[in-house]
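Q: Got a minute? One more chain.
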Amino acid sequence: MSREYDVVLLGASGFTGALTAEYLQKNAPAGLKWAVAGRNKQKLEVFRKDVLQADVTDAASMRVLAEATKVVATTVGPYIQYGEPLVAACAEAGTGYLDLTGEPEFVDRMYVRYHERATQTGARLVHACGFDSIPYDLGVQYTVEQLPENVPIQVDGLLRAGGRFSGGTFHTAITAFSRPKQNLDAHRARRQAEHPPIGRKARAVPGRIHRQQGFWAVPLPTVDPQIVAYSGRLLDRYGPDFRYSHYAAFNRLPMMAGGIGAVALLATAAQIPPARKALLNRLQPGDGPSAEQRARSWFNARFVGRGGGKQVVTEVAGGDPGYDETAKMLGESALCLALDDLPETAGQTTTAAALGPALRERLMRAGMTFATLEVDSY
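A: Always. Here it is, folded:
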């Protein structure tokens, strides 16, 4: 595919977009042809790269952008409001697409509308290329690789993290909480459109509150189990019957109760228009934690996998989850999709299916850890 650029980053004037642009400036190989794109060229000129004028609300602008590059990475959310024109343009142009969405509704709607066309053109549409959902998608794949083949597999993921929201992430979360009916409708439409693998099953199982690995495990209703289960349907290595459950891990009962209460309160308030407006006014897109605050942030995702009489416990860990590591994950995903020798995939796919071990190796070289903690029989 002959294009003017290898990678274009859309949204570099935002908080996470700027961190991703800085990451690419420091880590992109010398021969990479990359540019930044957005509405405000003046704000983008600070990166001293080619600047493309692009407006996410203008379909024609998105078509020009998609046709100019092999890969587009976008940080412009909430994606349910601003993401579709670029997905449509990439599906039509056969261009690789990466985003940072944590919105299940958006992922489902884009599958229904553009998976088939992207399959025809060879476009790889890869959602959730940041803290949602790379640590879990690649962490589960790393775990499955250490279990026997052709057996039923169960994996539980347990997340602990410390960090702060940016304004953009907060707006995305509140928007998602405010749309329960739309989320359900999109999920049903996706189930009708997606063809499950023949002779195999792969699904996300909500699970229940319980003790595991020394923690209180609480079901975590994010986009991550949806992404992991889709990888399980795409990849035969996950076996004939794959199940994944996703949890937040707490050391103590009061912390667990406080976390559950906070999420319930936000989800309820987000569905009441005056309360939702008040919440959205508390943080503005572009606001985010300082470098000092990010330096104190961290995440740890532990996975317990069982299959064929073998149990494996693995761990994926890194620094600031929402921003420094997310910028690293999106940047390395873009480099991987543009430059590496990868499996033949097309349509809406996942980081595990499209990028897999190649991306895992990149992230390990960049400082994230993938480790095996225990191997036992059961």
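A: The radius of gyration is 20 Å.
Q: Perfect, thanks.
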